[in-house]
Every structure is written in C-alpha cells, then in structure tokens.
Amino acid sequence: MTFSLPKLPYEKIALEPYISRDTLNFHYDKHHQTYVTKLNELVEGTEFAGMELEDVIRETENDPDLRGVFNNAAQVWNHTFYWHCMKQNGGGKPSGDLLALLEENFGTYENFFTAFKQAALTQFGSGWAWLVADKDTLKIVKTSNAETPLTQDITPLLTCDVWEHAYYLDYQNKRPDYVETFLNHLVNWDFVEKNLSR
Ligand code: MN3
C-alpha cells in the first residue's frame, strides 16, 4: 500500500482519563485507518500513488473531481498531526519563550485559551480548531470537515479535532468540556515549539 497508518506516539491508555482507550480504539483504529484505506483505494494507479502525502493534499485541494482524494489525504494528515498535539500530563499554561509568544500575540494566556476554545465551539458541524503561525504572527483559525491550513501559506502549530467522533464516547454532546480538557490536560506544548522552529 502506498500510504500507511502512522504509529500512535503513545499507548492507548496514555491520555486517560481525559480521552479513553475506547475513543482511541475507534478514532485511531477505525476512523484514521479508514481514511488511509480509502486514500489507497482512490490513488491506486494514479499519479498520486507515488507522491508525498502533503503534495497529494496540495495538488488535489482545488479540483472538484478529486474531492475524495483530497478529503481522505487531508484527514490522514490532520489526524497524524492531532495525535502529536497531545501527550500524557500535557496541557495547562506553557512556559518560557512559548508563553511569551502567546502573550505577545494574544495579550495573555487566558485570552489565547478563550479564543482557541471559541474557535472550537463555533466550528459548526465537523472540523478542526488550529493555532497557526502566519509569518511572525500567531493566529487561531478553524477549518471545516477535512480542510487543513497546510494548503495555505501558514504553519500549523496545534490542532483540536472537533468532529463528534473525537469526543462523543467520553463527553457525549459536551464539546466545551472536551475542548477545555484538551487545553488543560492534553496539549503537547513541546510539539507546538517544534512546529514553531520549522
Ligand atoms: Mn477525527
């Protein structure tokens, strides 16, 4: 197969009690795997079969006939990125240069927290909330369905999956509780710093 499911960066119990093993059993083993499987079916025998995933996403973004390829490729990428955005004992206010940068861009960490949460809650239906770097400025954006800031001239730093499948088993319809927990207990700030240095 051309594309494969990247390994989770932690054990499935690592994010408990905030995100359960049950959620990861579905979200990683079923949803993420299905995007990989469908992508492989769609690109078989096409020019996209030999490309890097990021190139497939960029090449198919604006072609209505290749929407299926784009959707599955972007979801493969978005999910891999999302797994790395979390870690055991993560979340809370970062420190050092990263905190200073958030304060410089949003005034206070609390302002950042509120703005990120607001983006996650106001994404109507399925999608993603993101912290991105637009040249020297940090911004919060949201995308629908499989849309990804990867295709724009900005650098994704952090994302929260707000498709219902990301939180329904653990939080049911309470997206606000899931997003607050994500920020308070799960964010992998080391990964955000790594993305900033690119
Ligand atoms: Mn998802």
Account of the 3D structure:
The protein is mostly helical and 198 residues long. It has two domains: 64 residues, Helix Hairpins (Orthogonal Bundle); 102 residues, minor pseudopilin epsh fold (3-Layer(bab) Sandwich), CATH 3.55.40.20. It is built from eight helices and three strands; from the N terminus they run αααααβββααα. The chain has a three-stranded antiparallel sheet, with helices on both faces. The site of manganese (III) ion has 7 residues, from α1.
Summarize the structure.
The chain has helices at residues 21-43, 53-60, 67-84, 96-106, 109-122, 168-171, 175-186, 189-196; strands spanning 127-134, 137-144, 155-161. With 198 residues, it is mainly α. The chain folds into 2 domains: 21-84, Helix Hairpins (Orthogonal Bundle), CATH 1.10.287; 96-197, minor pseudopilin epsh fold.
Q: Stretches where pLDDT falls below 50 for ≥5 residues?
A: none
Count of domains: 2
Small-molecule binders here are:
manganese (III) ion
CATH architecture of the largest domain: 3-Layer(bab) Sandwich
Q: How do the helices and strands line up, and which of them pair or pack?
A:
Elements: H1 21-43, H2 53-60, H3 67-84, H4 96-106, H5 109-122, E1 127-134, E2 137-144, E3 155-161, H6 168-171, H7 175-186, H8 189-196
Antiparallel strand pairs: 1-2, 1-3
Name a few traits of the molecule:
198 residues; 2 domains; 3-stranded antiparallel beta sheet; binds manganese (III) ion; mainly alpha; Helix Hairpins; minor pseudopilin epsh fold
